[in-house]
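Dear colleagues,

For the upcoming journal club I promised to circulate an example of a predicted protein-ligand complex. I picked one with manganese (II) ion because it came up in last month's discussion. The inputs are reproduced below in full, followed by the predicted structure.
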Amino acid sequence: MPSIDLHCHSLYSDGSQTPQQLVDQAVAAGVTVLALTDHDSTQGLAEAHSAAVAAGIRLINGVEISATWNNQLIHIIGLNIDPETPILKEGLVEQAQARAKRGRLIADKLEYLGVKDCWQGVLALAGNDENRVGRAHFAQYLVNVGRVRQLQQAFDRYLGNGKPASVPMPWTDMATAIAWIKTAGGVAVLAHPARYGLSQTKLRALLVDFQQTGGMAMEVSTANEKSNIINNLAVLSRRFNLYASQGSDYHGINMPWLKIGKFAELPAECLPVWDLFR
Ligand code: AMP
Ligand code: MN
Ligand code: MN
Ligand code: MN
């Protein structure tokens, strides 16, 4: 099992575990280098760092920034960032404010569709911090009140793009997100490139643009991905001069199909992104 996991979430975004719990689980799974990459938030990093020092593992400061590229939502992971960098901090504050605003709009739509006490219920799931509210919290609430059976169903029926409770987001653009990460001394990594539903042609266009805009790496091995997809991503990473990253995207108990440290090893031809911060 890989001992380097560069993608996971705590309850500072849509994960269910504290940073301390994540570190404990990482240790139990044999992970020795862990990056905490909450959605648009660096709030859990200090706690994760203390926990990692105490446990004797390495914590990489990370963040997963929501961004747009040609009207397409993408996720860009910043690894090895300095979270105190003003331009990054200010950018993430704006993203959080947009998140809170969107949360209320999604709740209004779901209330209209007959989902009771939606905003209060979702807020409670997000630690009563409106800035953390994500679609995964809405999905969990819809499961909890019996509207749907599984998180996936909540996205398919209500929260996915173009569905009745979807709200378009003014996320920052790709170039700005990459600039925040670079200014913060970090490495910009395109998250889960196979999950955007792009054709091979569009995916190549994204990778070219991402690399030319200062992106340094792409995720090649992500959890539950078929080996032919991982192999294709490995080939693309070499073709477009991108280092390769790997991670579980662990979210805790809400998404039991993801486990910390559980995903395939990088194919041999990849250039591991951690070579950049050894
Ligand atoms: P947000 O950043 O609030 O728009 O939420 C995006 C998050 O929702 C992702 O990071 C996943 O955790 C979750 N998510 C998106 N699509 C799905 C899906 N089909 N099933 C389960 N979770 C999903
Ligand atoms: Mn998530
Ligand atoms: Mn993501
Ligand atoms: Mn993620």
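Two points we might discuss: Residues 81 and 271 are 20 Å apart (CA to CA). The chain has two domains: 4-86+176-277, 92-159.

See you all on Thursday,
B. R.
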